[in-house]
Each structure stands twice: as structure tokens, then as C-alpha cells.
Specification:
By secondary structure, the chain is of the alpha+beta class. The chain has helices at 11-25, 37-47, 50-53; strands spanning 6-7, 56-62, 70-74.
């Protein structure tokens, strides 16, 4: 995904957002930074506990004025099966 209004975590975006957040921690650093949609998705994904994050095959954000819609698609293999061998949504 490109750095537009919709983003997903990427290694490049993760590295970039970490650099920006680290700059905020410096005494002489900026008081704010601008993150792309991919960087926001990377920040959210990397902030999740791994036991939760591993259950999502998809993490996506959409940047818009005043809102931050977040989408996370679960991995079907981790959804418990019913006694009849089907996942609850089948």
C-alpha cells in the first residue's frame, strides 16, 4: 500500500514511525510529527500484544478528518470450531 489515506503496516513504515516517535522523546525534538497512514497502521500493529496481533491477518487504518477507522481481519485458523466442525460464521 502506498502512503495515502488508507494504510497498512509495512517494514519501511514501521522504521519510519519509530524514528519519528524517537525524535519526540528528545529534549530538543519537535513537539509533534506527521505520520502517514502506513505509519499509523504500523504504530498500532506494533503496539499490540503479540498474543492479540498474531490473530489478525489484516491491520488497516483510514485517515480522515476527525476519525481513525481501524480494520483488523482475524485469521480463520484461530477461530474456535463448533462441536460440528464448522467455524461460528459458516
Amino acid at each position: 500500500m502506498s502512503d495515502t489515506g488508507v494504510g497498512a503496516p509495512t517494514p519501511k513504515a514501521l522504521s519510519s514511525q519509530q524514528t519519528k516517535v524517537d525524535r519526540l522523546k528528545q529534549v530538543t525534538g519537535p513537539d509533534s510529527v506527521v505520520l502517514s497512514a502506513n505509519e499509523v497502521a504500523s504504530l498500532i500493529g506494533s503496539s499490540m500484544d503479540w498474543s492479540v496481533r498474531k490473530s489478525f491477518r489484516l491491520v488497516r487504518v483510514e485517515l480522515s478528518e476527525g476519525t481513525l477507522p481501524f480494520t483488523a481481519g482475524s485469521t480463520r485458523e484461530l477461530i474456535p470450531r463448533t462441536p460440528w466442525g464448522r467455524s461460528p460464521d459458516s
